[in-house]
Each structure stands twice: as structure tokens, then as C-alpha cells.
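Interim report to the steering committee. The following record documents the input for Putative odorant-binding protein 49a (238 residues).
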Amino acid sequence: MKVLHSVVFVLLCFLVGFLWAEPDPDCFRNRPKITPMECCPLPDLIDQDIMQQCRDEFNANSNEAELDPPPPPPPAGNPDGGHRRPHRDHRGHHKCWSCFTCAGECAFNATGLMKDGELDAEKALEHFVQVITESDAKWPRETVEDAFSACNDKVKVMREKFAKRGGRVPPPSSDEGPVCSPIPQHLIRCMHGQLYRACPTDVRTPSDECTELQDYLNRCHGPLEWKKGQKPTPAPAE
């Protein structure tokens, strides 16, 4: 199997962790039209031909027909829907969570970054360094190394967490379908976030729109598309 709904995959749930507190209503009404990729250009971390083949194989293309519909409105006279805690609107979440983890593992296997469900950290680091620095020499190797180190540490913690579940993630809503490693999807999302935060000044796009995007990310959880034409990828199940 192989890795995640690629780069854009996006998204930017990676910049800020989900909180129980009710997010700013403007986060849903006034999402920036500009994408992080437009403010800090990055190459695709995984070859998109490989990624698309894996998405096709596991039906992980985020089409509107595949997305869960928004929840129904609360009954009359019960505006909070009976929830003591504000209801969280998860519209846009894909019905098949395992499709994305399996597509991710598929792509990592095809790229040689993973074998038998285990990440080859040394090979993954060199892969990301090569892809990013050869695409744009303004990206220092040290920046990529630091980003990978931080993300690999998170992967190690996650590996221990999921080891209690047999090392892989079961589909959360069904006993059917494949079970795959969540590591690729988490790693790519983390790399996007780390690299965006560390974007070199001479790579970052100076514009009012990008300043507004950064303000949005400081306040909100997303999700946003990582680059034009790609829908937000649902956060991996934990």
C-alpha cells in the first residue's frame, strides 16, 4: 500500500491542533481564496503520477459525491441540537477514511520510502531534501532536515500509539475494507506545515493576500486546499 492524498492534501489542520473550543465563526464564512502553495511555493513531495495511481486504486479522489453531507439542522426549540458542547460541523469529511491512508501507504511503497509498514527514515529524509532543494535552491538543506526531524519525532510517537492497535488504523466507520498505515499521511501533512512555517523569505510571496492567509491560520483550524484545484484532505483518524 502507499501514501496519502498528496500535497495537498493539505492541509492545514497541521498548523494548529484541533481544540474543543468553538472556532471563530469567520473561519467558516471567510476562508481565504489564496492557498498556502501560492504564498510559499513547494514542489510536490510525492510524484503526482504515482499519487494519482494510488488514489485511483483506493478510490481516494475527493469528489463532492463522496463527501459526507452537512448535518441536519437541530429540531425546533432545541437550537443546540441537544449537545452540551457546541456541535462540530464535519462537512467535507470523506466517507472512506481508510482510502486515504491506503493511498498514502501505496505511494510511499512505490517511492521506496516505506517497506512492510515501516518508514525508512533515512531514505525519506534524502527524498524530501532532493525533491525540495533541486526544485528551488533557495530552500536550505538544513530547513528540510529540521522539518523532517520534527515530523519524524511525531511519527515515532504515533507509531507507539498505533502499535496498541496492531500497528495500523482500522476503518473508523466500518469493519470492511483494507487497513493501512497512517504514517505517510501524517508525515506529509506535518512536512507541509513545518515547511510553510519555515518558508525562506526569498521564497515567500509578499502580498496582502498572503498576510491575510497567515492571520487566518493563526486564528483558525482550516481545512484549506494546499494548492489550487485540490480539495482539503480529511485529517487521519486517530
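Strands lie at 114-115, 118-119. The committee is asked to note this result when reviewing the revised timeline.
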